[in-house]
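so my prof wants the structure for this chain in the tokens format not the other one, which i didnt know existed until like an hour ago. anyway here's the sequence
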Amino acid sequence: MPHSVDRSKSLEQLEGRWPAPPEDTTSLVKAVHELRRRPVGTLQPHELARLIAQNVGLPSLLPLAVEILREKAPGQAAGGFYDDDLLYAVVTVSPQMWTEFPELARELKEAVTMLTNLSGYVKPDVEGFLASLPEEI
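here's what i got, hopefully its the right format
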């Protein structure tokens, strides 16, 4: 998984185009298709969370999400706000993804171990993520 993602490109440019969704599709599917057309560097944390939760663009988006989580972790530990939605989306990614990209898993592990006062909403999933990592990570 490359850590340097061309933030000026969309997922469509990085991964290829998808066929247009059916006209009667859900709003979630429409939103995912729309987000895939935007440059990844313009995606907000809640948009990254939506795509990651749908397992879309993980090789391109996980490095960006982990970067955001790492940058925000020290502030949360000092009593600031932390984006539980993005954290939840990232830590609930398949454990197989993390074994394929151990360096990124290590970076996320460092970030989540800094966190204090996690909400009950996300704490079990963070603990599950940590427990699923091989010892060497």
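also thought this was worth mentioning. Residues 73 and 111 are 6 Å apart (CA to CA).
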